[in-house]
Design goal:
It is built from seven helices and five strands, in the order E-E-H-H-H-E-H-E-H-E-H-H. The chain has 210 residues and is of the alpha/beta class. A three-stranded parallel sheet has the order 3-4-5. It is globular and about 75 Å long.
């Protein structure tokens, strides 16, 4: 005798469904015997994931694979200069959570970092330190200039500050604002990831062939 299941009692005037004892093979895939458990799971997979597709072959280039790995694991350096660094720290916190984009690992050493965020004004005394830290970072490496002070000196148009960090190191992405919000820095990181994904010759440089 099979387990209770939904069975249909057809009547020409009053068709309805009642809970009763069904014969083997007539359990309608619901609460049925062991024979129908596999069919039930198949129906659940069909409803949730669609029809099963045959496995295929994914074609891509080696450059795209290398760039995809690099853009998905950007490691910024723990480095801040002024008030923009507070916004950068907020970006790494729970509210904004840059971990969603694979850039949550702030490294304390330039030798373990591939992204330098210039967050704040750059003084003439700090310029050689920034250049030295940039030179200690391994290739490939990228720079984001965060805020008006780092980009153009901001309101500090005097002899003590560098009027643009691009005078001492190359910059990949500029973030406007004084100070810019954490969302702007997150957007800048996504733009940098798009730039990394479009690079050519990454595999050759990784293997020292170029």
């Amino acid at each position: 005798m099979s387990s209770p299941a939904f069975t249909e009692r057809h009547n020409s005037q009053n068709p309805h469904i009642v809970l009763g004892m069904s014969a083997p093979g007539t359990d309608r895939y619901l609460f049925g015997n062991l024979e129908s458990s596999g069919k039930n799971q198949e129906k659940v997979r069909e409803v949730n994931f669609g029809y099963e597709e045959p496995e295929g072959v994914v074609m891509t280039s080696l450059d795209f694979a290398v760039n995809w790995v690099r853009k998905s694991s950007v490691w910024p350096m723990t480095f801040g200069l002024a008030c923009c660094a507070i916004e950068m720290m907020s970006m790494g916190g729970a509210r904004f959570d840059i971990a969603r984009f694979g850039a949550e690992v702030f490294r304390p050493s330039p030798r373990q970092s591939d992204l330098m965020v210039i967050a704040g004004r750059v003084s003439q005394k700090m310029a050689p330190v920034i250049r030295r830290l940039y030179q200690q970072m391994p290739e490939p490496k990228w720079v984001i200039s965060m805020g008006a002070c780092a980009t153009s000196g901001g309101v500090f148009n005097n002899y003590a500050l560098v009027q643009g960090v691009n005078q001492i190191i190359p910059v990949d992405v500029y973030v406007p604002g004084c100070p810019p919000r954490p969302e702007q820095l997150m957007y800048a990181i996504t733009l940098l990831q798009e730039k990394i994904l479009r690079e050519r010759g990454s595999a050759k440089r990784a293997l020292n062939f170029q």
